[in-house]
Amino acid sequence: MKKILNAILLFLLVVPVATAQTDGRNKTFVVGFYNLENLFDIYDDPAKHDEEFLPDGKNQWTEVKYQKKLHNIATVIQSMAKTNGRFHTLLGVSEIENRLVLEDLVSQPEIAAANYQIVHYDGPDARGVDVALLYRPDNFKFIDSESIPFDFHSGTIEFAMEGEDRASFKTRDILMVHGLLDGEEFAVYVAHLPSRIGGKGWDLRSRGAEIIYGHAQKMMEKYPGIKVVVMGDMNDNPYDRSMVEFLHSKENPQDVGQDDFFSPFWSMLKAGYGSLAYQGVWNIYDIILVNEALLNSPDGGVKIRPVGKKGFYGVVYKKPFMITQSGQYKGTPFRTFSNGSFIGGYSDHLPTYIVLEK
User: Fold this and answer.
1) Contact 192/35 with Cβ under 8 angstroms?
2) Which three-class secondary structure state does DSSP give residue 94?
3) Does residue 88 lie in a domain region?
4) 13 lies in a domain?
5) What is the distance between the alpha carbons of residues 103 and 49, in angstroms, rounded to a whole number?
6) How many domains does the chain contain in total?
7) What percent of the residues of the chain are helix, what percent strand, and what percent coil, each to the nearest 5?
């Protein structure tokens, strides 16, 4: 009996209580995004190109490696919860194969106390990777959701891709989740916009941003005063055309108009922060944006707040255990694979988050 009581006490000390908490008089809510870098199960799905992530595939993706990956990701989420004194209320994720891997993730002992619920759709991406949203039902009441497909129906963008290439192009759908955060109406978008491979795709990413913006505008018309969060691996930096021209994002809070989005990570990138590194250059592709209603909510309403002593409105979460400590990639995110070999890391991206208060 004594051993059981000690185990329970240890659990309560290690894992934050998964309920809304307060800072002084205000409730606070953590909202974030994390690219999980190829969280695949070990089973063959004939409808997907998942051959590399099978026990006899290129990556020799075994049950042991899969469980290590799950444990690693859960450890990062738990670490963020310890830092913030609470688990995320909303956590968008990308590069996940299916609902099964999410169910396995949220049941990990490090984060099971959060009681995360899952919103996920199987999308058309050729590799089979999707986006999803994890949410805590004690803070967020789910109303409905939608998987928004990519299309080429733009009146402003001239696409480089034509003909058969356009017809066969497949990329991740955009997830929209509509619900109530502490009783207030929210729309949350989770995206993983098309790749930068070969230095291309600005037009595709711009179209993805245009689709998100158009849908968000309709939600704001349908639900006056609704608060909107857009998050994802945008494969662009906050100052790139897709974010500025097509998602109407602004660096400075004072410049944000009624139809604009505030971009907390723009000033952070300029200050030297990054969520991923490529050829020695840090970028922030893991972007979170908020609409004017969430930025300038009146007193008593949920609003974004600065985090930390430097006054930034966002956080790139970076701990030593998440960083490569030696070798060619020293100082960059400690990833799962390097040069084709399993090295047992976490992700090639660092998670980002914002803090809301009421």
Assistant:
1) yes
2) strand
3) yes
4) no
5) 21
6) 1
7) 30, 30, 45
Amino acid, single-letter form, for residue 314 = G
Domain presence at residue 221:
yes
Residue range of the domain that includes 177: 29-357
**The one-letter amino acid at 88:** H
3-state secondary structure of 304: strand
Q: Per residue in 23-44, is it b (16+ CB within 10 Å) or e — as a string?
A: eeeeebbbbbbbbbbbbbbbee
Q: What residues pair up with 92 in beta bridges, in sequence order?
A: 33, 133
Place of tokens 């694979």: 337
H and E: helices and strands count for the chain: 8, 19
Q: What is the pLDDT of residues 2-30, one digit of tens each?
A: 444 444 444 444 445 444 555 555 899 99
Question: What is the phi-psi region of residue 339: left when phi exceeds 0, alpha when psi lies from -120 to 50, beta otherwise?
Answer: left
Q: Phi, psi (5° rounding) for residue 161?
A: -80, 135
Tens of pLDDT, residue by residue over 284-338, are 999 999 999 999 999 999 999 999 889 999 999 999 999 999 988 899 999 999 8
CATH number at residue 134: 3.60.10.10
Read off the pLDDT of residues 164-217 as tens digits, 9 standing for 90 and up: 999 999 999 999 999 999 999 999 999 999 998 767 799 999 999 999 999 999
Note if the pTM is more than 0.85.
yes
Which structure tokens are listed for 314? 């966002």
Residue 213: is it exposed, middle or buried by C-beta count within 10 angstroms (0-12/13-18/19+)?
Answer: buried
Residue 296 dihedral angles phi and psi, to the nearest 5°: -115, 35
Residue 262 tokens read as 């505030």
Residue ranges of alpha helices (H) inside the chain are 2-14, 63-84, 99-106, 163-168, 202-222, 241, 264-270, 292-295
Tokens encoding 239: 């100052």
